Amino acid sequence: MSTPETGLVISGRLTIPDEEFEVRASTGGGPGGQHVNRSATRIELRWHPATSPALRQALSSEHRERVLQRLAPRLDADGTIRLVASEHRSQRRNRDAALLRLGSIVRGALPDPVPRKATRPTRASVERRLDEKKRRSSVKRDRGRGGYDH
Fold first, then answer.
1. Which partner from 60, 87, 136, 142 sits 20 to 30 angstroms from 150, CA to CA?
2. pTM check: above 0.85
3. How distant, in Å, are the alpha carbons of 36, 62, 69 from that of 65?
4. Tens-digit pLDDT profile for residues 72-83
């Protein structure tokens, strides 16, 4: 969550300060009558990850490039992530909802791929597989024999 002095906490190493976000409020659309037409509760949150000092400080250049590559499908032509929140009736709750969504998007781009450990099958699983192959083989072998009286 975001607090005035810390910003958006992504992980133990990475916190994005509020100064990096561009937050714009506007009137929302859809149903709601006069309240939605008069109140600027819809929030548009914009963040530019490529020029983010927080990413540059917290991550190595290789790790940062990987994160930017994973975020690439969400970026617009300017390289900005843009989130809109208008599901709540208050500006503050919509801002928190947009920050929460941004946090989960960035967190999803952070983890390194876990290398696969080569393992060997257990003796019991090998025996089960071979027994099943023998059983299947005998079923197929018995099909070709004319042992049925017609």
1. 136
2. no
3. 41, 5, 6
4. 999 999 989 999
